[in-house]
């Protein structure tokens, strides 16, 4: 019986050793599985972080591009408005200059057609108009010459006044 008992004890010891070894293997497999899952999870997190960083960079680049386009559009619009205003001002000044030239021409050469008092009033109106336009078109006149045909406005007025005054003396 001793040998059967010792055989059972040896079998129990062998069974214990096998179970212990199997538990040890299962622990190692579980540890390996945990490490594998952790590594995969960490890889996914890194991929998600990289994708998020890429999206943020793309969004920043898109925002910067849109701001630049908006700035360019605004600059173009300001330039267009400025050019349109400059063209409009130039047209108004040219119309005013043409009107003044006509007025001075009528006053200077057509004095005989009017009574001296009427001609003097016409000249004074022309001078008032000239001074009004002069206030707003000094820069334009410096580029295009005087407002009258080859003469300064005051010269035309002075000649016309002198003609009118000589006509009054008669």
TrEMBL record:
Return the SUPFAM superfamilies for the record. Answer: Apolipoprotein A-I
Q: Where is the composition biased (Acidic residues)?
A: 118-127
> Which residue stretches does the UniProt record annotate as biased composition, category Polar residues?
154-170
Keywords of this entry = Coiled coil
Region (Disordered) spans which residues? 68-170
Q: Where is the composition biased (Basic and acidic residues)?
A: 68-93
Residue spans making up a coiled coil are 9-40
Q: What is this protein called?
A: Uncharacterized protein
* Source organism: Hericium alpestre
């Amino acid at each position: 019986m001793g040998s059967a008992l010792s055989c059972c004890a040896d079998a129990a010891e062998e069974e214990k050793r096998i179970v212990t070894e199997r538990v040890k293997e299962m622990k190692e497999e579980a540890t390996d599985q945990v490490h594998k899952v952790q590594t995969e999870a960490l890889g996914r997190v890194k991929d998600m972080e990289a994708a998020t960083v890429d999206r943020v960079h793309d969004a920043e680049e898109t925002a910067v591009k849109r701001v630049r386009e908006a700035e360019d559009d605004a600059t173009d619009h300001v330039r267009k408005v400025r050019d349109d205003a400059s063209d409009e001002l130039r047209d108004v000044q040219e119309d005013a200059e043409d009107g003044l030239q006509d007025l001075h021409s009528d006053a200077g050469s057509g004095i005989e057609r009017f009574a001296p008092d009427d001609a003097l009033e016409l000249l004074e109106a022309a001078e008032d108009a000239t001074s009004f336009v002069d206030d707003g078109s000094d820069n334009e006149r410096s580029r295009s010459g005087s407002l009258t045909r080859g003469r300064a406005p005051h010269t035309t007025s002075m000649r016309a006044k002198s003609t009118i005054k000589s006509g009054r003396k008669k």
